[in-house]
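hiii, so i know i said id send this last week but things got crazy w the move. better late than never?? heres the sequnce for the chain we talked about at the cafe, plus the structure i predicted for it. fair warning i was half asleep when i ran it
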Amino acid sequence: MKKFLINTIILGGLLMVAIGCSDKLEEYYADPNKTTEPEMSKLLTYMFNNDRIKPTYWDYRTFTFPTTAKYTQFYGFSVSNKVYQNNLAYTEDRWEAFYTGGIMNSYRSMEKAYNEMGEDEKERNKVFLQVAKVLVYDHAAQLVDLWGDIPFSEAGQINLTSALVNAKFDDASEVYTTIIAELAEVNTYLASADLPSTVETLLAAQDIMNNGDLLAWRKYANSLRLRLLMRISNIDEATAKSTIATMLADPTTYPLIDGNDENAVLEMYPEGSSLYSEIHAVFSDLTPVAAELIVEDVMDANEDPRTDVFWDAGTEGFVGLPADVTANEQQDLINSGAIATFDSATFIYNWNIPGVMITAAEVNFIKAEAFERWGGGDAQGAYETAIRQSIEFYYTLNQAQVQGNGNNSFSRDPMDSPSEEAITNFLSKAAIAYTGTTDQKLEKIATQKWVNYFILQADQAWAEVRRTGYPVLEFKEDPGTNELPPNRLLYPATEKSNNGANYEVVKGDDLREGRIFWDVN
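okay and structure toks below
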């Protein structure tokens, strides 16, 4: 069915409330497409009502698993005809989730409301606009990582000016440059913001992620900035090196996420609320089997403590689905129960998986890479801290499990955290230990960061695999087309038909084999 374009011009009235919307969201949000007098605080809440922030069935089943999780080999799949080609309707949904799904349209409505205020009222409400920018910039960068050039500076004008504007495609590198600069300004503002008590109370009530904690927002903004700087480091090393060094040398000015209690995540509220992780529903029609590389070669072979909370062993142990056999042979292995599957307690039946923006483990992996490449700190210490934090994070998910999906017969006790001996043993393994040449160390950092992302941040994993080249993933060619996974996604069909003049400017780069500007491997 042909969809009417609502992406870059943000037409109102078409946004549907997402499945799984919480009672809390229903009480506190304001749909920017349905209100003529939006409250900025409620628009902030509404930004979280997005299928790509909450762990929803729609996101994981129609996008993550068939696209980014497949391209990063986080699960086993049969190599059949057109296996690496995307369903363009589903990738269009991913595109529209940013523009009309509550992020860009909410932000533009906030800007409009802000612009119409008097100076005193602006001063009181500025904080809502500033923290909202962090979410906008996070997800705009994700779109760049998936597609390249995107409509950005002119997007959403209907919500801002009531004018229908076909937005131009901004150069991807310029979008990144803008975001990196703006995140620094957000941090500076939040560091000195002096909020009236009434605003503090309102922000705490409407900010369902950080409960109005401005330091938490600063840490999210700075950690996101660190991620984006490292991502451009192979194309603009001078800028990345200098800015990252400045940030890491001054944690007072640039506080970062440093522990799992500071992770930028949207917690689920399973008790008495309909806001819960829907990942479990994905596995009702998708066989959740492990891929060989991650479960056998990277995790089990090195006695990774996370193995037990990532996977349920098959009858043959922690064995992944081989890619070098026929589809019928693969299915026979699956049917026999020989192949490991996603862990039932941590993932399949767990309603309590948060929406993950950025974690302490990722921040420390970035520090490790920076220190290894440019000096200035303890690369090994940051690397080992990141692995420890990743282990802790996934065990916490297992231990905080809320078993659901209507299967009352399922019951599994949470797993005890691994012993120090087990963690030390893992860190000493030849494939893990921080030894070798600089290139070997960087490969270890990238590989462990890949494991840490897993399916909860598969988009980030795909970006980092393309940026670093690690881990080295070998794919079997599509037997019908001889294709391998693409380097980028193709633009949505509605973008071509309804924003045609602007699409013509980028049409020549709209190729599967095209590369995002930071991808120079």
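btw The first helix runs from residue 23 to 28. thought thatd interest u
miss u guys!!
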